[in-house]
Amino acid sequence: MTQRKSIYYATAGLLAIIMFASNFLSTDLFRAGYQNFSVWFVLSVFSFACGWLMNKTLGYNHGGKVIFSVIVASAFISIMLVSIFSEYFGLSELIVENMILYVLRNITLGSMAFFGMAISELIILQKEGDGNKNKLEEIRKLMANTQREAKLIVEDARLKSEQMLYETQQTIDDMIERKNLIEIRLKEFISAEKDLIKKYESDEE
What we know:
Blueprint: H1 2-21, H2 34-57, H3 60-84, H4 96-204
Helix pairs in contact: 1-2, 1-3, 1-4, 2-3, 2-4, 3-4
């Protein structure tokens, strides 16, 4: 894991080199010709790519801190470099405006790196959002299927309970009918016994 992290931080080193290299370019883009403008464009694209890669490897929060640190360090080195070698950079007077100009170069390229990180993070969030939408649709379909199954189960249980109630009622009705039939037969038997006893008593007299 440590080895991978060191490889990831190499991207930050590349970004620092790009920012440092910008100190040797002319600030007057269009007067210096299209070649100088093309170099600035290429450096901006490389900074964008570094930010994109750092978002993929170091993450948005940590990568942003690393880029900010690189910007601050590069700006400090640029100020020191311009201060020491002011004649090489064609600065007769070391004024604040010139310092700010060189610092702005680093900030511009650092902003391109931040822009690359932001675009990369937006794409990642978009993909995650699409994935969450698909999961949400699947959950909704699952809930709809579950509700349908629950309704079918409830309906089946209701039909079974009604069938059981009907069968129970039929059984009760049959038992009542048999009870009534037994009572009728018992009454007939008792009545026949009474008639038989009366007949027996009349025969004895």
